[in-house]
Amino acid sequence: MAGEPQSDCLFCKIAQGEVPATIVRETETTVAFRDINPQAPTHVLVIPRAHYPDAASLAAAVPTVAADVLQEAGRIAEQEKVDGSGFRIVFNTGAGAGQTVFHAHAHVLGGRGLNWPPG
C-alpha cells in the first residue's frame, strides 16, 4: 500500500536504518544520503520516509511531503556548498526515464558543470 514501508524496497530499508548508507541529513519526513554511484562531485539522494513509487504519486498523495523533499534538496545544496555555483534537482519517473529504485527520490547534483540538455 502506498505510504507504507515495502519489505522489498531498498530505500525503505535505508529510511528505516536496516541498510547502511552515508546519511547527510534527516528530518521527520525525509532522509538524505550519498549516491553509491555518483554522477557529480555532489550527488545526494533525498527520499521521503513514506513509500511512494515516484515523485508524481508522492505529490498527488502527500504534497506537503513532496515539498519537504524539495526543501531538503535546497538545504543539501547549501550544506554541500553548491548553492552558489549551481545545482540540479532531478526526479526520474519510470524505467524509461532511468528510475531504477521505485521509491520517490530526488537527486541533488552539483560541483561540476551540468550541461543541457541532460542526456
Report on this structure.
There is one protein chain. The protein is α+β, with helices and mostly antiparallel strands. The protein has three helices and five strands. Strands 1-2-3-5-4 form a five-stranded antiparallel beta sheet. A hairpin with a 3-residue loop joins strand 1 (23-26) and strand 2. Helix 2 crosses helix 3. The longest helix has 17 residues, at 63-79. The model has no long low-confidence stretch (mean pLDDT 96).
Largest sheet descriptor: 5 strands, antiparallel
Distance between the termini: 33 Å
| Structural category | alpha+beta
User: What's the count of strands?
Assistant: 5
Write down the secondary-structure element order: HEEEHHEE
The whole-angstrom Rg is 14 Å
Discrete helix count: 3
List the uncertain runs.
Answer: none
What's the topology here?
Elements: H1 10-15, E1 23-26, E2 30-34, E3 42-48, H2 55-61, H3 63-79, E4 87-90, E5 106-110
Antiparallel strand pairs: 1-2, 2-3, 3-5, 4-5
Protein traits:
about 120 residues; alpha+beta; 5-stranded antiparallel beta sheet; about 20% strand; globular
What is the structure about, briefly put?
The protein is of the alpha+beta class and 119 residues long. The protein has helices at residues 10-15, 55-61, 63-79, and strands at 23-26, 30-34, 42-48, 87-90, 106-110. It has a 5-stranded antiparallel sheet with strand order 1-2-3-5-4.
